[in-house]
Amino acid sequence: MKKVTTYIWMSAMVVLSVALFSAITLLDLGPSLKPIVAAANPTSGDPEFRQSFYGSFEEPLNKPMDVTKIGELIYVTDTKNKQVQVFDQSGNNVFKFGKEGADEGQFQFPYGIAGDKDENIYVADMYNGKISIFNTKGEFIKYFPDQDKVIQSPGGLRIYDEKLYVTDIKENKVYVLNLEGKKLMEIGGSGQDEGKFIAPNAVAVDKDDQIYVTDSGNNRVQIFDKEGKFVRIINGSKDGKGTPLFVNPRGVGVDSNGTVYVVSNLSHNVYAYDKDGNEVLVLGGMGTENGQLYLPNGLYIDDRNAIYVTDTINQRISIFY
Known about the structure:
GO terms for molecular function: DNA binding; ubiquitin protein ligase activity; zinc ion binding. This is DNA-binding beta-propeller fold protein YncE. It is a single chain. Strand 4 and strand 5 (93-97) form a beta hairpin. The N and C termini lie far apart (52 Å). This protein has a single domain (50-320), classed as Neuraminidase. With 321 residues, the chain is mostly beta strands. The strands form six sheets. It has a four-stranded antiparallel beta sheet with strand order 1-24-23-22, with no helix packed on it. Strands 2-3-4-5 form a four-stranded antiparallel beta sheet, with no helix packed on it. The chain has one helix spanning 2-25, and strands at residues 49-53, 64-70, 73-78, 83-87, 93-97, 110-115, 121-125, 130-134, 140-143, 154-160, 163-168, 173-178, 183-188, 200-205, 211-215, 220-224, 230-234, 249-254, 260-264, 269-273, 279-284, 296-301, 307-311, 316-320. Helix content is 7%, strand content 41%.
């Protein structure tokens, strides 16, 4: 009887997490277009708000969900507009690609985004169940190989050391593949136990090859070694064993100093932790002013330790360093 009750509870949590994900990503509460704030060079101190951008006046961002930097350009999944927008470092729109549909180069729900060493662009379409690859001009090249349809609902993407890390939000797993599409490893499965997930949304890898996964439905970040073995949990409490501080964690990233940044979507913050899991910094807070966030989602840290956050309901990218 206990096993049946646990199964029913877990099923309800999965349904709730997916429903919450859908409701949040389709909200339409964004403010009007605001001016771009001038950029500055990264500093060695604690990161501060420096810059935000919203897209062009003709076509502002509409529910941006994820962001990455490839070369000197910033790529954003402009999810409700069913496209990817590309910006220079001053926030000027350079070009965009994609449109609504299920054919090659089209999107239903573009979500995770990443780039390889050749500056090819990988875009996960959670609703189409595909990962598409584009060249630097935004021209469709091919679908990322997944002939066996192992990945059902691709979410967050990271490319590190010639490997693609991808979360499968519905299957509650993280897959690691080489860039030829061969599956090297899978982590997770549905549940609350260590090493299990409910709606994992994002993944990051640090310089020691440790893998960080936002386990959104369980309100925690789980850390694994390069072999996929569970290491520890970060959830904002001491040793990760107490009541979670995070509420629906989404994006995650690790800077060159080993500081871990976690987007807490429903508390409108980005929390930062040192290597021992101690909180060192909080960015954001609910609002529409510069430096504030409103249901943030994606996070990317570049090689200068600049932090890019998709401020979804404010319909902008906020940058801290």
